UniProtKB/TrEMBL annotation:
InterPro entries: Thiolase-like, Thiolase_C_2
Name of protein: Thiolase C-terminal domain-containing protein
Pfam families in alphabetical order: Thiolase_C_1
Gene3D superfamilies: 3.40.47.10
Domain of life, per lineage: Bacteria
Domain Thiolase C-terminal: 66-208
Length: 213
């Protein structure tokens, strides 16, 4: 598995007031609500369970996957508050035989800050309309009941235009207990979710640690 070495565009702390005071891009999103474009690249290796057992690194099984595509343009969305993640997530959970309560760590494609509460709702981690309070009460922070985007996400780690590979890499590190200071204790099931084509195409994957085999 390869790791990325993104060109650092901005460093340092970012407080809530800094985001609120940032230049408006598209109301209510400020420039701090949007991913910076950075350099980066990554890779993963997918093979059979039998082959993976012979390799040096602990294997990370794919437990379930799901995809859904409802429309082409964002202007065709039936509702801006519900995405096809409703379907992709349900398919992934069904294949894995799991539910939201079984997930220990979540990696979400956060091209904008609005993506996180939107996908948390659509994937069943909280009720529709409760994504904001769910995030605001600290549920998704390190040590919270559902750690989300443990590498900082596209907003705070890297976003070379195709961020999805980095979520798979981070989930793999978490499940291998190889995430260092950001390691989520007892992480055995990770959900990775990406979107594309301006909120139209959605893909969800559930990955597990060795204990899930």
């Amino acid at each position: 598995m390869g790791a990325s070495h993104a060109r650092r565009v901005r460093e340092g702390p970012l407080a809530l007031q800094d985001v609120l005071d940032s230049r408006m891009v598209s109301d209510p999103l400020t420039v701090a609500d949007c991913c910076l474009v950075t350099d980066g690249g990554g890779a993963i290796v997918v093979t059979t369970t039998e082959r993976a057992r012979t390799l040096r690194q602990p294997l990370v099984p794919v437990l379930g996957v799901g995809e859904a595509h409802w429309h082409r343009s964002i202007s065709q969305m039936p509702s801006l508050t519900t995405t096809a993640a409703v379907d992709s997530g349900a398919r992934a959970f069904e294949m894995a035989g799991l539910g939201p309560a079984d997930v220990d760590v979540v990696e979400l494609y956060d091209a904008f800050t609005i993506n996180v509460p939107l996908f948390l709702e659509d994937l069943g981690f909280c009720d529709k309309g409760e994504g904001g309070p769910f995030v605001a009460d600290g549920s998704i922070v390190p040590g919270g009941r559902l750690p989300v985007n443990t590498n900082g996400g596209g907003l705070s780690y890297t976003h070379p235009g195709m961020y999805g590979i980095f979520m798979l890499i981070e989930a793999t590190r978490q499940l291998r207990r190889a995430a260092g200071a950001r390691q989520v204790s007892g992480a055995d099931v990770a959900l990775v979710h990406a979107n594309g084509a301006v909120l139209s195409a959605q893909a969800t994957a559930l990955l597990g640690g060795v204990a899930t085999l």
